[in-house]
Design goal:
By secondary structure, this protein is mainly β. It has helices at residues 2-7, 30-33; strands at 16-19, 22-24, 42-44, 53-54, 63-69, 76-80, 85-88, 92-101, 107-109, 115-116, 119-123.
Length: 124
């Protein structure tokens, strides 16, 4: 992966490799993975940027439902607070949080009563 990264003008470690549905690290050699001439290795460059956080502000306390749909190719890798996810065949994976907003910007997740500052999600 590091050689491919350099050939593409990127830095060592910029890519994650996948072969046969399995992740392969940059320290792995072609021979130990069973990669043969003509095989394809998928290289993925991780997304860079901040964490996807959802803040809700309201001048009065409000019961709110927040739904988030992913494109069909993505899957949630982390969510906070923990909530049930479903699969929608048109939109992909979906999560719904039910919260009570508070005037100070905090939230209470209504299913557990957990007080949180924000809703968080990550996807791959």
């Amino acid at each position: 992966m590091d050689i491919a990264a350099r050939k593409l003008g990127k830095e060592d470690g910029d890519f994650k490799g996948f072969f046969g549905g399995y992740s392969i690290g940059s320290e792995v050699t072609i021979g130990c993975c069973g990669i043969e001439d003509g095989d394809y290795v998928d290289l993925h460059q991780p997304l860079l940027g901040g964490k996807p956080v959802i803040y809700l502000y309201s001048p009065i306390d409000v019961q709110a439902s927040v739904k988030l749909f992913l494109i069909p190719e993505w899957r949630f890798s982390a969510v906070y607070p923990v909530a049930h996810t479903t699969i929608n065949h048109h939109h992909g994976e979906c999560i719904e949080w039910n919260v009570q907003t508070h005037q100070d910007g905090s939230l209470t997740e209504t299913n557990t009563g957990r007080d949180v500052s924000y809703l968080f999600w990550e996807a791959e």
